[in-house]
Amino acid sequence: MDGLPVTIRLIDPPLHEFLPDRTDLAARIATAEARGAVPEPHDTELLDAVNRMQEENPMLGLRGVRLGLVVPGLVAMQVRAIAEAVVARTRAWGSPDTEIMVPLVGAVEELRIEREEVERVLAEVAEESGVPVHCPVGTMIELPRAALTAGRIAEEAEFFSFGTNDLTQTTWGFSRDDVEAAFFSAYLDKGIFAASPFETLDITGVDRLVRIAVDEGRAQRPDLKIGVGGEHGGVPDSVHFFHAAGLDYVSCSRFRVPVARLEAGRATLPDAGASDSR
Asked: Which residue of 32, 95, 196, 206 lies most exposed, with the fewest beta carbons within 10 A?
């Protein structure tokens, strides 16, 4: 990847996802107690931690930038690892081009505070190693408020990447894990959807937020690099929309890369329309 930009997103999921399953832990402790044994202290400690972090709606809870703001040392740990990797690659005569992305920002103040922490750690590592470390700091636009205040967020962000899965969820008020199986088939049958908004970008709602964010972000910072990550980045119709909206790149799973490359090329042709291949 020398010479190519590598964007590293700071920890995004809720922390409980990194801990053992709550039910399994409770069952182990209950089994030990039923046998008259003392539960493993580590299991008890883990269960206490899992219970503290339990949320009713974790994807709208303590995750993304919020984690970095309230968990001491979490951002510094990640950024130091990134910076030391950049130093190691530079000393090996490589040319790392590393970017740091802060997820789930909804207010410029969140990004400003976290960016100050990032830059402090980068400067520390550069001073300790004697190797310059520069990592542009940007954010993922995945909340409607972020899109609507993109001009202000661009004051602190050197790049945007649209997280269209979360942006779709928060715009529609859908929980993807719950609603697709629950009622999407009925919505398709009744003509409410022409296609699932998680498969093809919603071009009458989410697309407006994307355009607002692009226009306001570049009005504040004309050189703002803007892309999109997620499955929408590999869908033909969506690729054409992203090109028309002025995005610089699309990113998607490796399985969709050939289609994304083809459609990105087609989108640059004069009078290129949306793909006929569905």
From this structure: 95
Asked if 68 and 106 touch (Cβ cutoff 8 Å), the reply is no
Using DSSP's 3-state secondary structure scheme, residue 226 falls into: strand
Structure tokens at 35: 């046998």
CA distances from 186 to 4, 76, 168, 178, 181 (A): 44, 47, 19, 14, 10
pTM, full prediction: 0.86
Q: Please name the residues in contact with 54: beta carbons below 8 A apart, sequence gap of 6 or more.
A: 16, 22
Length of the chain: 278
Q: Which two tokens stand for residue 146?
A: 């972020």
Tokens of 210: 């994307």
Per-residue pLDDT band for 215 (boundaries 50, 70, 90) equals very high
What is the pLDDT averaged over residues 218-229? 96
Choose among 237, 248, 252, 251: nearest CA to 206.
237
Helix 257-267 and helix 236-245, axial crossing angle in degrees, nearest 10:
50
Q: How confident is the model at residue 275 (pLDDT cuts 50, 70, 90)?
A: very low
